[in-house]
Design brief:
- By secondary structure, the protein is of the alpha/beta class.
- The protein contains 10 helices and 7 strands.
- It has helices spanning 17-22, 28-39, 45-54, 61-68, 77-86, 99-109, 139-151, 168-171, 184-187, 201-205; strands at residues 2-7, 89-98, 113-122, 125-132, 158-162, 176-180, 192-194.
- It is globular and about 45 Å long.
- The relative contact order is 0.19.
């Protein structure tokens, strides 16, 4: 058995979920600036996440779910998942984003499991608070080790794909590390780079 772990935002999905959520509030530029600095490794991930989510306070959860149902997938997303599964991979999604997006998308793409964060709400309105599996810069690395131990999969049989600084911790635990349209900090830690927005390129790497 082999393991493939994909980041969600700007990897499986073409964009950043939290920026789409910021649009109805008119704060997408403010949120995007914080995201950009966090993905470049200039800001602590936990602080950047909690700061950005605080800005979403007051957004109806129903609106969140509606936006997350129509996020644009990266070209080749469905094909790369199917292709990896044909080659014996368990395919998993890790995201510093939110289950509202990762769970329905994982179901649609045929991904085996997703690990992400939960936007807190009260009476259907976002409180501006967040919790979950992927809150820290070290979270993806911690989770991939747990999965490898649980499934009996070695680092040698692990593939990871991501684009930003919070993917660095999982890159440390995989043989094949793909920087996908990635920030310089992640490219430096990669074994392979893909610079075109087409996830099918990953199938060529493992061919």
């Amino acid at each position: 058995m082999k393991l493939a772990v994909f980041d969600f935002d700007s990897t499986l999905m073409d964009g950043e979920t939290i920026e789409f959520l910021a649009v109805p509030l008119g704060i997408e530029e403010k949120v995007a600036l914080i995201t950009e600095r966090a993905m470049a490794g200039e800001l602590d991930f936990f602080e950047s996440l909690t700061t950005r989510v605080a800005l979403l306070k007051g957004l109806p959860k129903a609106r969140v779910d509606e936006i997350c149902q129509s996020l644009p997938m990266m070209p080749g997303a469905k094909e790369v998942v199917a292709g990896l599964k044909e080659q014996g991979y368990k395919v998993v999604c890790f995201s510093g984003g939110f289950r509202n997006a990762t769970t329905p998308t994982s179901r649609d793409l045929g991904i085996d499991a997703d690990f992400s964060n939960i936007l807190h709400d009260e009476n259907g309105i976002l409180t501006g608070r967040v919790g979950g599996d992927m809150m820290f810069s070290s979270s993806k690395g911690d989770m991939i080790v747990r999965l490898q131990n649980l499934l009996g999969i070695t680092q040698e049989n692990t593939l990871v794909v991501g684009d930003g600084a919070n993917d660095l911790s999982m890159f440390a635990h995989a043989k094949i590390k793909v920087a996908f349209c990635a920030k310089p900090i992640l490219r430096e830690a990669s074994t392979h780079t893909v610079d075109t927005k087409d996830l099918r390129e990953i199938l060529k790497i493992i061919a």
